[in-house]
Amino acid sequence: MKTHSALAALLALVLGCGGERPCTRCDTIVIAATGEPSSVLPPLVVETVGRDISDQIFERLADLAPGGAPIDTAAYRPRLADRWERIDSLTWRFHLRPARWQDGQPVTARDVAFSFEAFADSVLDSPVSGEIRGHITATAEDDSNVRLAFDRNYPEQLYDATWHVRVIPAHVWDGVPREKWVDDTSLAHLVGTGPYRVERWQRGQALTLVADTVAGRRTRLGRAVWRFASDPEAALNLVLSGEADLMESVGSPERVARVEQDSALTTMSYPSAAFGFLGYRVKSHPILADRAVRRALNQALDRSTIATVVFGKGALAPPGPMSRLLWIWDDAIGVLPYDTAAAARAFDAAGWPRGADGVRRSGANRLAFDVLVPSTSTGRRRLAEAIQEQWRLAGAEVTITAVDFPVFQERIHTGRFDSFIGAWLDEPSARVIPDQWGAGGVGGDNYGGYVNPVVDRYFARAMAEAAPGSARAAWRAALDTLNADAPAVFLYTPVQVAAVSRRVEGLQIDPYSWLSGLSAVSLKP
């Protein structure tokens, strides 16, 4: 554990501003991050902090506008490509803008083709390799034009062509065997086309980016430094002590209050891409396989109050398996209402009357089951406790089992649970929903084994629609039916609260990539 003086000395070394903090003369912003990325080379990035840094160095072909529907071809903005066109139902052509790598070499279509191949390579095992391998083939037509061929016709082709892959330089990485990429620590190999380049990486301490000037400076700040903390509390302390200017997510309401009490800081709230739910084991469970019981359990829960109590002001109970960022969010989606009287009647009608001890029974069987949570998540434990109490009042005898996260993962993947509290991080596409709640996801992400052919047909229709309005209607029909079956309780989607130094100006947060607008940020003198 480093002392405060050691941290100050490190910061002075990184920033070159003597011992002062904050150093208002410096052209540098400092970001407090929880944890350190294993890599910032795009195909190898697995942590969000790695993505945050990498996206300052490397670029996509195009960006989806904030709030845009992935199937809306008008919602994309040029980045490395300045224009594109559909050739036929399976093929797109992208024309690259004149650009140079940060080492001065020209960017060519070969680089794009090389990047798609790298992201698809099973040796590198990129987290998005499954979206590329066997589905998209990139071919350089000449230096400026690259052709992307898809294995099938579907509305989200442009999304898959642009969202997943950041372009990397073939002339740097083509000569390095793929199996050695993960161990390559040469900063000279981290060459991109983005507004910043890597200047220094002190492992375990900090990573410094400096404004790139090869294509003309595109940033208002000359340097951005990521300080790596061991845990969220240590990261927050960097901000509270004035050693960092930004922190992505402060956390609990109590921690937010500490930031709000500091006159040198302010907070910025923005919607999170995360959502949480309690999933039932629907398949072959002696109690929870009964749709009527699940519906009664759902009606006995005050989801909105639970979300606010656990995650603070602004948290919402979602109308389905989604965060409020997902473009198909619709407040008109049908959700079973909180109604304890209706829940009691439904339990009685399903053959579960309340016994003398308050617990409902069906014959000799008690309405008793377990909720599985990861022991590392305070939020999920608090959710389970709130749910446990409300279900106790409804006549259900519920226990909570907290296990280490690897055990939690193993148990939900193998179906060894009654119910569990899960969390998911959205991307702009809604197509992950069928993976979690459709027949095709059984044995994969559909841990509870829920299957309804009507829901599956709506899912298929929604994913085939090319018009956003028609697709939204199909998604709503699917979720109306899903919610009526109650395979889960969709509990919360929180608000993130960033800690921001009052000397920071121009910060606009895109919830899918909170520092994507860093190049426009400046510091007060």
What does this structure look like?
The chain has 525 residues and is of the alpha+beta class. The protein folds into three domains: 4-54 and 194-271 and 497-523, 3-Layer(aba) Sandwich (D-Maltodextrin-Binding Protein, domain 2), CATH 3.40.190.10; 62-173, Dipeptide-binding Protein, Domain 1 (Dipeptide-binding Protein, domain 1), CATH 3.90.76.10; 274-493, Dipeptide-binding Protein, Domain 3 (Dipeptide-binding Protein, domain 3), CATH 3.10.105.10. The protein contains 16 helices and 22 strands. The strands form six sheets. A seven-stranded mixed β-sheet has the order 8-9-10-1-11-20-12, with helices on both faces. Strands 17-16-18-13-19 form a five-stranded mixed β-sheet, sandwiched between helices. A four-stranded antiparallel β-sheet has the order 4-5-7-6. Strand 4 and strand 5 (91-96) form a beta hairpin. Helix 9 (291-299) runs antiparallel to helix 11 (340-349), helix 10 packs antiparallel against helix 12 and helix 15 runs antiparallel to helix 16 (468-485). The chain is globular. Residues 1-10 and 12-22 have low confidence and may be disordered.
